[in-house]
Write a structure and sequence with these properties.
This protein is mainly α and 133 residues long. It contains five helices and no strands. It is elongated. It starts with 10 loop residues before the first helix and ends in a 9-residue tail after the last helix.
Length: 133
């Protein structure tokens, strides 16, 4: 029995979604293996910025497919990481907020790694990121 139309996607768009996850993962790898922080490399790294631009350019093509949830997942991951990074930066300027800021940066880095890994694994299995209610 063929898949319902809302869950079919072109192979090129699936490859683009893999590319976006790979670019985000490259930013994470740069953050882990260099002097940059994980969250700093993810938010400000060129690979992640290229990935988010591709997300917005290809978002309409993904509409109505299971990839739409992956695009939403990737975009939300990026913007929530930016939000937490800004919050941590505001806290780090105060002496009392430094430990909390460092905890936020660490937790956000782990959270981003989790989101990219979970999303990429779901894409590999051709599953949407959000279950139908």
């Amino acid at each position: 029995m063929p898949e319902p139309p809302q869950f079919t996607a072109e192979a090129s768009l699936v490859n683009t979604t893999h590319l976006i996850y790979a670019l985000h993962a490259l930013s994470l790898l740069i953050g882990i293996t260099t002097a940059a922080t994980i969250i700093g490399a993810f938010v400000f790294g060129v690979p992640s910025i290229i990935a988010i631009v591709i997300n917005y350019l290809k978002k309409e093509e993904a509409r109505g497919t299971y990839l739409e949830s992956h695009f939403r997942w990737q975009i939300r991951t990026f913007w929530f990481a930016v939000l937490w990074c800004l919050l941590g930066t505001m806290l780090i300027v105060t002496f009392i907020g430094i430990p909390l800021a460092l905890a936020i940066f660490f937790a956000t880095g782990i959270w981003v790694i989790y989101r990219i890994a979970r999303g990429w694994l779901a894409l590999r299995d051709r599953r949407p990121m959000y279950a139908a209610v």
